[in-house]
Design goal:
single chain, alpha+beta, Glutaredoxin, seven-stranded mixed β-sheet, two-stranded antiparallel ribbon
Length: about 210
């Protein structure tokens, strides 16, 4: 699994559905560089089970992300037509009607591959025939990208393990705190708590005050 933290986020142009109903033929991550932070998350499949709980959880917190000038973008290897169909399905039937942030269609699986979250892979067998090992779908990867297009945080869950959206929001707060204050965030930091100076004196003072 590649570690992208500290590196430029892989760029892409792809089909997407935005605002729950509009098809975009050339959706680009690059449009947010220099302007917004981005939470880019991958999910395995439309019309599944854990996935709608995650997508709705991000929607419930969407205003909080937006108040932090942060764009939320979801990606799976389904088509844009599949995304659109799922967006028409009511929540009480397992659908994602009401989701307004972009759903990107990684139909060619290149985005998932470039972020190294693609489960399964291609190989050639003894007859030189192309085969696939495992389902070519995305793990539950999440990447926090700063305004310069640099990945500052990543986490990848296996398929049955849903993510904590509050933790994603906490990481946005932590990154923005570091950017604005020049201090670092100690363990279990939350918005409103103090940071500390990245010096021996700073950590000693913090431990003296906050650790029993």
């Amino acid at each position: 699994m590649a570690v992208l933290v500290g590196k430029k986020a892989p760029q892409f142009n792809a089909q997407a559905v935005v605002n729950g109903r509009e098809f975009v033929t050339d959706f680009s991550l690059n449009q947010f560089i220099g302007n917004k932070h981005v939470v880019l998350f991958f999910y395995p499949k439309d019309f599944t089970f854990v996935c709608p709980t995650e997508l709705h959880a991000f929607q419930e917190k969407l205003d909080e992300f937006k108040s932090r000038n942060t764009e939320v973008i979801a990606v799976s290897t389904d088509t844009e037509q599949s995304h659109f169909g799922w967006l028409q399905m009511e929540k009480n039937h397992g659908g994602i009607k009401g989701i307004t942030y972009p759903l990107v269609a990684d139909t060619n699986k290149t985005i998932s591959k470039n972020y190294d979250v693609l489960a399964g892979d291609y190989f050639y067998d003894e007859n030189d025939m192309l085969q696939a090992e495992g389902e070519l779908i995305a793990y539950r990867g999440l990447f926090l990208i700063d305004k310069e297009g640099i990945v500052r945080h990543q986490i990848v869950n296996d398929l049955p393990l849903g993510r904590n959206v509050d933790e994603a929001l906490r990481m946005v707060d932590a990154l923005q705190f570091v950017e604005e204050n020049g201090e670092v965030c100690p363990a279990n930091w939350n918005k409103g708590k103090t940071g500390m100076q990245a010096t021996h004196e700073g950590v000693a003072e913090f431990l003296e005050k906050h650790v029993n």
